[in-house]
Amino acid sequence: MILREITRNSHVLDLSKKVGAKANYQQKIATLSDLHWDNPKCDRDLLKKHLDLCLKNDYRIHLNGDTFCLMQGKYDPRKSKSSIRPEHNVNNYLDAVVEDAANWFKPYAHLIDVVGYGNHETNIIKRMETDPLQRFVDALNGVSKTDHKVFTGGYGGWYILGFGRASYKIKYFHGSGGGGVVTRGEINLTRALSYFHGCDCFMMGHVHENKESNVVVETLDAHNKQIDKEILLMITGTYKEEYDGGFMGFHVERGAPPKPVGGRLLTLDYNRKKTGRITIKAKSEKL
């Protein structure tokens, strides 16, 4: 299994050696976003449970933005004393979060392929002129004792799983807008279909929903034969529980509802027929 960087935000995980001569092969990927790992409201027990599941079963891991919250810096108008963990309440706040996170995620480093940016990470680049996500990935690769290299992706990019003669193309994008109480991000998924082409799966986070949709489009195969192609659309949830019974706080005061906590698990079933025809069927479920 080899992970290669094609461009700065396009990465291919080559699974051809794992598949080998097998007619059937299954690969699972934990698609996680909006961990807000350094926030006291992050459900770290649940996150650890899900990461330990990946560790036990050799699932791959993709992080699609807002791995960190990082809102407690000196010049951040959003800062709040109640929103910082005691171990991070130090003068070198950003350094403390990055170093602590690298050690916390160390047991899972060999499973993490790509870590993408979210608006919380890009906000720190704008405000503080430092890249906390790249620093985290560099630190994680530094403490990891395996040959596997974790890559930094983009706010949007491509994560491709190669199965030899076939591949499964995932277009990831952290997300934009605030979602909606009624649509719950569904409009974002429909909009993505208009300008992201060639993907087998589109996934986004940001709006703190957790769902799957499926659409079918007409296209042509490699032999110019008309086929119906199914595209999987996913919104991955958050690990930050902000509603807190609806008592008070920014989330409650802006009229936002309770949100589902947890990520999604994407399952790819590779099948090669005796005729040589290859199919890759995908489904996802809430973690």
Structure description:
The chain has 287 residues and is α/β, with parallel strands linked by helices. The protein has seven helices and 13 strands. Strands 1-2-7-8-9-11-10 form a seven-stranded mixed sheet, with helices on one face. The protein has a six-stranded mixed sheet with strand order 6-5-4-3-12-13, covered by helices on one side. β3, α2 and β4 form a beta-alpha-beta unit.
CATH domain fold name: Purple Acid Phosphatase, chain A, domain 2
* Mean pLDDT across residues: 92
Number of domains: 1
* End-to-end Cα distance: 25 Å
Order of helices and strands: EEHEHEHEHHEEEHEEEHEE
Topology of this structure?
Blueprint: E1 2-7, E2 10-14, H1 16-19, E3 24-32, H2 44-57, E4 60-64, H3 93-105, E5 112-116, H4 119-128, H5 132-143, E6 151-152, E7 156-162, E8 167-173, H6 186-192, E9 201-204, E10 211-220, E11 226-235, H7 250-253, E12 264-272, E13 278-286
Parallel strand pairs: 2-7, 3-4, 4-5, 5-6, 8-9, 9-11
Antiparallel strand pairs: 1-2, 3-12, 7-8, 10-11, 12-13
Helix pairs in contact: 3-5
Keywords:
single chain; alpha/beta; Purple Acid Phosphatase, chain A, domain 2; 7-stranded mixed beta sheet; 7 helices
Could you write a compact summary of the structure shown?
Helices cover 22% and strands 31% of the residues. The chain is α/β, with parallel strands linked by helices and 287 residues long.
